[in-house]
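5055_t:CDS:1
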Amino acid sequence: MPNSYPSQEIQEEIKRVIKAYRLSFPCPHCQEEINDNHFSKEQRIFQFISEKVRELVEEQFNLRGQTYRQNWLEEIKTSRIYEDFPAFQELRLNLTNLQSQVTKLQSSEYIENLDRVKKLNEELAKSQKETTELRVLLLGQKKSGQKKGEEFEK
């Protein structure tokens, strides 16, 4: 015949839990404090077991929810269902448009047609022209200076 009483270890565990798990709350009607002394040992044990079962069920429910969510995300990734969503298609279209705009903005034709670049090119051409004119003048002065030096040597 099986023993209907819990084993000694289980009884010890129950005693430790009962010591740690104290019940205390005010009565909603008379505001008198209700504590463990108002309940029998069996009622406290039942209350504790009920609380533990609730915690275990919540934990299992949360784990199942997380597992379900992970499986769902994995399925979406592998089947690529998200590509059929209108928002995703709109994002892909926007991305394509933005990439083409970036390519256009980085092209040499676009950069050369910018007003600032045109002004800088004009300034560069003007500076190069002035430099060329100054070189011509400098060479002319050197030649005339050489002629004067030759006349002086004679």
